[in-house]
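INTERNAL AUDIT FORM
Audit reference: QA-55
Scope: verify that the stored structure record matches its stored sequence.
Auditor: D.O.
Record contents follow.
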Amino acid sequence: WFKVIWTFDYDADLKRSSVIVQSSAGQHYLLSKGAPEEIVSICSQGSIPKEYGEELFHLTSLGYRIIGFS
């Protein structure tokens, strides 16, 4: 289970919303969702799949709306 510690409402300038949760083991995590380009900017570059940009372009060119999550 996870306990919500704090929520950050959607911020139009940041183009994301976030929540801090605590696991049953006591570990804390920051979970964010929002515009893919903003989410990828807060992730460590080694965690981004190499085909990320191509796939994002492909899906958006088909008209899909994409939400990033980390």
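Auditor finding: record pair retrieved intact. The longest strand covers residues 2-11.
Action required: none
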